[in-house]
Amino acid sequence: MLEHTSTDWAPWYVVPADRKWFTRLVIAGVIIETLESLGLRYPSLDEKALSSLHEARKALEQED
After folding, report:
1. Cys staple from 6: which of 12, 17, 32, 63, with CB 3.0 to 4.6 Å?
2. Domain residue ranges in the chain
3. Nearest-angstrom CA–CA distance, 20 and 26
4. Tens of pLDDT, residues 45-57
């Protein structure tokens, strides 16, 4: 079943469940590997957008 349903974009993982700490370690490793493979990064902003964000932050900090 796993061979027929696991794909590159939606893989299945077989995780041992007899030791909770090890199960969590394996799952954390899969999550980290997946997030790193996405190549996420912060968007780059021009000066106008940065200025607008700074003004919004100042306004929020001055609220009660």
Report:
1. 12
2. 17-62
3. 10
4. 999 999 999 999 9
Q: How far apart are CA 38 and CA 46, in angstroms?
A: 24
Round to whole Å and give the CA distance between 2 and 12. Answer: 7
Contact 30, 13 (CB under 8 A): yes
Query: Do 17 and 23 meet the contact criterion of CB atoms below 8 Å apart?
Result: yes
Q: Please tell me whether the overall predicted TM-score, pTM, comes out greater than 0.85 for this model.
A: no
Structure tokens, 49: 């957008």
Q: Report the greatest alpha carbon distance in the chain.
A: 58
Instruction: Name the residue among 8, 5, 13 with its Cα closest to residue 37.
Output: 8
What is the identity of the amino acid at 13? Y
